[in-house]
Amino acid sequence: TCAQGLVLVITASTLGVSVANKGWSFGTILPPKNSSHHLNYTDRPNKIIVGGSDHWHYGFNYSEWAFKNSPFYLNDTLVFKYDPPSNINPFAHSIYLLPNYWSYLKCDLRAAKIIANTTQGGGEGFEFTLKRWQPYFACGEHNGVHCNNGTMKFFIMPLFR
Question: How far does the signal peptide extend, from start to end residue (predicted)?
C-alpha cells in the first residue's frame, strides 16, 4: 500500500543518512573492520547507557542522542538508568517497546509492550539486549505525555556485527 511504501522510504532514507554521516562506504551496510571512527563498533557487543551521563529523564532529546551514537548492533545492550519514584523524586519513568513506526510517531501505547517498570531503572539500571529488530523505545508514563512531547522516545536500527 501507499502507507507501507512511505514507511519503507522513510526507513531507507534514515539508514542512508546515518550511513552517509558515519563515513561508511557507498553500497554497503557493514562498517569497515578495524575502523576507529565508528563510535560503537567493536568485535564484541557493547553496553551503552541510554542518554550517556544524562541517563533516562524527562526533557532530554533521545532521538538526537540515538542518531549521534549510532550505529547500534545486534547483541549490544542498552542500559536505562533512572531513579524510581520517591518522596524526593515524584517523576516516574518506564520503558516500552512500540510495535511499529506509526505507534512511534503518535506515541500510541495501546499495542506497546512494557519492558521495564518505574522501579527497574534504579541502581545499575535496566539492561535490554538487542536480540532482534525492535527499534522503537519510549517512556510510557503519564499516558504517553513523556513520549508525546518528543523527547523520551527514540528508534535505532541494530545492524549485524
Answer: 1-20
